[in-house]
Design brief:
about 45% helix; globular; five-stranded parallel sheet; 8 strands; 9 helices; Rossmann fold
């Protein structure tokens, strides 16, 4: 039986690290659904689009000028043939991604591509903010990772070489946007295993997932 394993949670809670390692150990594809929103936000910024122009963002979401591809180590975003995966990781792109993710037309445009990541004959590990609630609501295994705001800000600041205080403020805004949006808000999926990674190493955070996946 081929199953989908979803890992949701707020920014810098350890989703990407844990989900990528889980997929590696299971020998199956891994996708970050957030890359779809970050990719769209980055490309909209490059094109100078008005972020309040919902119709233009919806058309851009379906445009062939960009695409998302899965690899063993990354969810790759291509813009006009160029790999821009590293450029979408910055926190300001994440803030714009959170903003456009509240638009139903954008979510509808990206949802089909996200669901196509599950290929017949293969397991899939999918991480994001609504994988277990919207993208793959029938997933066999659902995990929700969380951590303290301070801890998450420290992780992201270390990754980006940025100010922890600045990251914390940006993160608080994004958490509010993600949790308060009317369409697919960030929430704990039904029957999800909740893991607080605040004081956990990768191996410690991974262990509950290992138990669930082997059960």
């Amino acid at each position: 039986m081929n199953i989908v394993i979803t890992i949701d949670g707020p920014a810098a809670s350890g989703k990407s690290t844990v989900s990528r390692e889980l997929a590696r150990r299971l020998g199956c594809p891994w996708v970050s659904t957030g890359a779809f929103y970050r990719g769209l936000a980055y490309i909209a910024l490059q094109m100078g689009l008005d972020f309040s122009d919902v119709d233009s963002l919806g058309r851009l979401a379906r445009s062939p000028i960009w695409s998302v591809e899965m690899t063993a180590e990354n969810t790759k975003v291509l813009f006009q043939g160029e790999d821009v995966s590293d450029k979408i990781a910055h926190d300001d792109v994440g803030s714009f991604a959170s903003r456009i993710s509240s638009y139903p037309v954008v979510r509808a445009a990206l949802l089909e591509g996200q669901r196509r990541c599950f290929k017949p004959g293969l397991h899939l590990v999918a991480e994001g903010r609504d994988c277990g609630t919207v993208v793959f609501p029938e997933a066999a295994v659902k995990i929700y990772l969380t951590a303290s705001s301070q801890n998450r800000a420290a992780r992201r600041a270390q990754e980006q070489g940025s100010s922890e205080e600045q990251i914390l403020k940006s993160q608080e805004v994004r958490d509010q946007q993600d949790s308060a949006r009317k369409v697919a808000p960030l929430q704990i999926p039904d029957q999800a295993l909740v893991v607080d990674t605040t004081n956990l190493s990768l191996d410690q955070a991974y262990s509950p997932g290992t138990q669930v996946c082997s059960g």
